[in-house]
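fyi for ur records
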Amino acid sequence: MEAERGTQNGFEEERTTLLRPRLRRVAVITAIVAFGLVSLVLGNELMFLITFCLIALLALAKVFAHWTLRPLHLDVSGTPEAIEGQEVTLKLRLTNKGMLPRYLVEARLDLPASVEAADTNHLVFGQLLPHQFEEATVKVRFRRRGLQSVGQAVLWAQDPLGLFIATRTATPQTQVLVYPQPKPLPLEPEGAMRQIQWEAERAIAPLPSSVGEEFWGVRPYQSGDPLKRIHWKITAHQGELSILQTLPSLRHGGVIVIDRHPAAHRPLSSVETTLDELVRYAAYLAREWVRHYWQVIFWAPPDAPMEVNGDWHPVWRQLALLEPQPFSLPNLTTVGHGVVLTTPYSPFLAAYQQAPGWQVWVLPIEALREEAPQEDGLRILVGR
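which gave:
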């Protein structure tokens, strides 16, 4: 028999029969009225007894449906962290705290707009023994970064005759920190601080010397070398004087500035904004620059600049929680050189483009408009 969708008690549910609870109740109530009228007209005691039994059956069915849900407790758990678009498994645990077993209890996750189900979010728990629990899993995907909830869980059960459906809504306390999915952006910092590749840059790179800050290695002692540069541990191990060699301090650079001024951003869909797109590009730049041994300084005014020392996850976490915030035009020259990620709506766009030594990357709104799904009002929102 074809599946049918109906609405009972304020939520949408899937039915596997055409005889829904409302129709069943109408049929029972019609029978009560008919038997009641016949018993009054004819004075038939048997008809009156049948009428009374049907009324009692109707009341008992409603009490049974609510009684089924009363001792049940639902917990929703899952991974505390995820990435945009990544499939995540949520675990639903339904516990029976009552003294009697419960049968055929259904659960459904009503997910928020920023979360979509990767498979069915409608689960059926067949049997729940007293003081026992049953578990089931639901796979979901988070469409937007940030600290996301998993919505509400709706439990419902019905009496054995299918006359009444009792529901109860539970709000799980589970929250997931969703990191932005890095989006490729082929930009390299100008004048960035990076490790020197000696095989490729032997002709142009400064040679190791006995002065500097970056450790390079050791070499045998030569006449005239300062004694304070002797590496005594290696000297004792090898039995000959060894001099510590270092490289001059490398140049500063590799600053990533993201423009999060509220006036610079517009909604792209019912879930995402242009800031979410900038965050994805910024996450890619931070990850790739760190992988290439460039010094990275991340700056999201009005927050203070953050220096990344080999581990880009603190920046990734900050990007996950980044929200629009007003700020005054920053002085970019105080942090060096790098890249500004902004939009064509930014009130500081002209000032960014005039800053010497800075690359300004402007979010291509037209390309996003073509790639985005055709939602109602999308073109108007993006073009404002």
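DSSP finds nine helices and 20 strands in the chain. thats all i got for now
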